[in-house]
Amino acid sequence: MRVTALRRMKLLTHNMLTSHVKGVKNGYPLKIEVNEMKIREVDFNPEFISRMIPRLEWKALYEAAQSLDVVGNLSPEVVKDYENDEDFLKEAHRVLMEVEVIKGFLICPESGRKFPIENGIPNMLLNEGEVGDAGPSQSGTSQDDDSMQ
Amino acid sequence: MLYTIDTSFGDIEDKLVGDLGCGCGVLSIGAAMLGAGCCIGFDIDEDALAISLANMEEFEIENADFIQVDLTDANSTTKWQKKFDTIVMNPPFGTKRNKGMDMTFLKTALNLAKTSVYSLHKTSTREHIQRKAKEWNVKMEIVAELRFDLPASYKFHKQKSVDIEVDLMRFTFYDDKQAGASFSAR
Predict the structure, then answer these.
(1) What is the pTM of this model?
(2) H or E stretch at A138
(3) CA quadruple B114, B46, A13, B14: dihedral sign
(4) pLDDT digits 0-9 by tens, B44-62
(5) Would the CB atoms of A134 and B75 count as touching at under 8 Å?
(6) B53-86: b (≥16 Cβ within 10 Å) or e
(7) How many helices (H) and strands (E) does chain A have?
(8) What is the SS3 assignment for B172?
(9) How far apart are CA A66 and CA B114, in angstroms?
(10) Model ipTM?
(11) Using alpha carbons only, what angle is made at residue B80 by residues A66 and A94, rounded to the nearest 5 degrees?
């Protein structure tokens, strides 16, 4: 049987993941602990990247890039007229689409809960008892139990 | 099916496409092949996701990602709301064990999509879904009627396989406030 090649999580995906552990008010952005990462070339699609810019949390993306040491020439802020700024879009593309986290953890900034990334798939499943009711919970005291299975 | 979505409605190319309950990733991979900017598949099942990855390698897809998540937990997708242009999905049909699952998926999909949701549903549930769509103030249309030959997959299935009729439905949003009015007057 063929060995499954390594896959990864893109920072585009990371930009929209939150910790939704019961009691956590602000589970965003998730810190990234990397055990293995890689840069893989992906076709540049300026139209798609332009479309995504307004939907992203740029600050979270920039910080993620910093923590992975892949900032390069990424602009710390979204520039004006970004649709026509190819250099800006190319850098955004590189960071969003080409940086791959293969193995590691996503860490909730509030509770410290770790979500494992294996083969590039973040596992956001919660254990029984961690699942909150619909809507953000009001309990302010974040427990410090790092419930890694 | 995806080809129709792209050529008739232009909802795939250069778009961010989500696939809820992606299973083995067939729709995700198809969307990626048709030129989606990126496709993100969501599923709860680790084994299914592993197959998705293998399939992705097979087709040399670079612009797709997968997440293991429980879509029935509404809190798990809060940050994704309206981030996708298009959602495509083949939700679990309501069976004895997970009744109403298809509607939970549909509701989630409508929260995540900005433009449209494409979903497969049993034709026998069409009226029910039509009522729901009205209630949620979304537009529903039938894009295609399909026939599936489903092999028995659960122990409680008595027949070896069943031939079922399935609709490919397209859901879109009314963009102005009074748009729903004509729909509800009946």
Answers:
(1) 0.85
(2) none
(3) negative
(4) 999 999 999 889 888 989 8
(5) yes
(6) bbbbeeeebbbbbbbbbbbebbbbbebbeebbbb
(7) 4, 5
(8) strand
(9) 30
(10) 0.83
(11) 35
